[in-house]
Amino acid sequence: MRVDAMLPSHRCSMGVPGLDTVLLGGLPSGHLYLLEGQPGSGKTTLSLQFLMEGVRKGESCLYVTLSETATELREVASSHGWDLHGIDLFELSSVEAVLGEGRSQSVFHSWEVELGETIRLIKQEVERIEPKRVVFDSLSELRLLAQDQFRYRRQVLALKQFFSPRNATVILVDDLTSAGGGRDMQLHSICHGVISLERFALEFGAARRRLQVQKVRGAAFIAGYHDLSIRTGGVEVYPRLVASDHHVEFVNQPMLSGVRHLDELVGGGFLRGTCTLLTGPAGTGKTTLALQYIGEACARGERCQIYEFDERIGTLLRRAETMGLDLQGYMEKGLLHIYQANPAEMSPGEFAWHVTRAVQDKRCSMVVIDSLNGYLSAMPEEKHLLLQMHELLAFLNQSGVTTFLINPQIGLIGMMDADQLNVSYIADTVVLFRFFEANGRIRKAISVVKNRSGKHEDTIRELHIDSQGLRVGEPLTSFRGVLSGVPEFIGNGKPLMESRDA
């Protein structure tokens, strides 16, 4: 079945762009939905965004709160810089004052009012306001009033039948506390759709949140888990990346570095739509080589993006300046963006969403991820993280983006750790950097060990970096101990390069 055929004629936007993307436009309007999640998962914030979107569209909106007071809701809104003007608040909570009949809000003691009377008052308010969007927060208090599951289920069914002819989109909020922390599957069967929010803590770093659309009857949506965060301004949802949905046509032309010997080493340049893994010990020139390609791409007028996990942006810019690259100037022209990522705070889904937006909104043609170790620390479940990285790289490749993935080797010298190269299968090209010894000095070597996109040299060349930029020397033929991890050059020294610094 075509996905387009499953789309309803009218969707109700949630007011959260990422969630609307997951729902392929929003929830089908005029139905009853369940928003469930443990306390702190973001239910109230998301519900307020849903109602504020209705106010923005000129729709009447009602928030029925049995668990929080109107003051508490306004405090939540104030923390995000929101004004709840235009949203009718109907409050049933344990407060001492009871507002008069002439006020727009009504306050009752929830434990002193029979369930039937509570439902009657809610229906009365709905008939008075005739809202197009309703949030009912929360079902836990309704369960307490009902006292047994049969009566509770009957009242939820009655609410569904009451709202059905009114063409109102209703969200029932469930904090899962009354159900012993588990999901109420009977409630799932009643509602037209179910959205589940989760909050879980890692051993280190901020708590992570994610969202899953359990079902939406008669409508398509993006299944699976989607990372989300709560920041000042509301909930942000990062849809799970599906690379096959983002294929674009592009010319598979080589990306030149501006360094002749380097382009020769890689068989004429890295092709667009490929990923290159730069691996080797710290200090061998991996990031510098990536910056060389970034500088050339920006000089051609192409937009580039660098995601920096390990190094400070200021340090990176100073390093580029010492080798003659004016990255600051490219940033001022809008050709280069450098994003300082914090793996302790950023989820993999959020990172993938940032990259997606850079490619689709900013039209970036080259992306550098520095480094893989920083990215791996974003989530302890490495297997799942590598699967997400595989999907991200597939998206970049299908978008015609040239990607550089920097993978530092553990330790400065010694044998290569096989575990550190388990990402090589997702890269089209693998470039290996090594230190080597010659005439009592430590030098750098570069070689290409894999290139899916075409031929490449099987030689080892010297890599040298000075104030005039990056250079790659002639092939070095007199090596010993290359595979041991500490290669030694035993030639006569003629092919070796010297610094051009005065």
Main beta sheet strand tally, sense and closure = 9 strands, mixed
Give the termini separation. 69 Å
- Number of separate domains: 2
* CATH secondary-structure class of the largest domain: Alpha Beta
Shape: elongated
Secondary-structure-derived class = alpha/beta
Q: Output the strand order for the largest sheet.
A: 5-4-6-7-3-8-9-10-11
CATH superfamily of the largest domain: P-loop containing nucleotide triphosphate hydrolases
In total, the number of strands is 24
CATH architecture of the largest domain: 3-Layer(aba) Sandwich
| CATH fold field value of the largest domain | Rossmann fold
Portion in beta strands: 25-35%
Chain-averaged pLDDT: 85
Question: What's the SSE blueprint?
Answer:
Layout: E1 11-12, H1 17-22, E2 27-28, E3 32-37, H2 43-56, E4 61-65, H3 70-79, E5 87-91, H4 115-129, E6 133-137, H5 139-146, H6 149-163, E7 169-174, H7 185-190, E8 193-200, E9 208-216, E10 225-231, E11 234-238, E12 254-255, H8 260-265, E13 270-271, E14 275-280, H9 286-299, E15 303-308, H10 313-322, H11 327-332, E16 336-340, H12 348-361, E17 364-370, H13 372-376, H14 382-398, E18 402-408, E19 429-438, E20 441-451, E21 461-466, E22 469-475, E23 479-480, E24 488-489
Parallel strand pairs: 3-7, 3-8, 4-5, 4-6, 6-7, 14-18, 14-19, 15-16, 15-17, 17-18
Antiparallel strand pairs: 1-2, 8-9, 9-10, 10-11, 12-13, 19-20, 20-21, 21-22, 23-24
Helix pairs in contact: 5-6, 12-14
